[in-house]
Write a structure and sequence with these properties.
mainly alpha, single chain, 7 helices
């Protein structure tokens, strides 16, 4: 086991446990926020595992997850808009923490990999992950009226 795999294990353990706890307990608003957290924990872990095992195909999985994860959260926000009206979910601290973790992982992997095509793919994954997480959290907290109201 190398440092990349250990870091991915720690990230999956911490983020996965928090997401599982959020999905399994509490009100609907916490469950939807935890669903968004799942993407933010798994995607950087896949990037770290890609470096640790030397398998670039894991970056493609992270790219797909960074693209589709926030879309799934937006779909939940749209479908559950009436149920979420009573209790506005707000997890800005968690959102910015997850975005910072994703940014740190992407920057460390860019430095480790050096310039090239792989770095561009990592930067795209990082941008999608951070922007998607922030947009989905804003939509859940009522910041985008078109998403919540129809």
């Amino acid at each position: 086991m190398n440092g990349w795999i250990l870091a991915a294990t720690v990230l999956l353990g911490g983020g996965g446990a928090a997401a599982l706890w959020g999905v399994a307990t509490g009100p609907l608003s916490r469950r939807v926020v935890a669903q968004n957290l799942t993407t933010s924990a798994i995607c950087p872990s896949l990037l770290l595992l890609s470096q640790g095992y030397g398998r670039p195909s894991y970056v493609d999985l992270a790219l797909l997850l960074a693209l589709l994860g926030p879309v799934g959260t937006l779909v939940f926000a749209r479908l559950l808009a009436e149920d979420l009206e009573a209790e506005q979910p707000s997890a800005w601290g968690l959102t910015w923490t997850a975005a910072a973790v994703g940014a740190v992982v992407v920057l460390v992997l860019c430095v480790a990999g050096g310039p090239g095509r792989a770095m561009v793919k990592l930067l795209v994954v990082g941008a999608l992950l951070i922007c998607g997480n922030v947009i989905a959290s804003r939509a859940l907290s009522g910041g985008m009226k078109g998403v919540r109201d129809g």
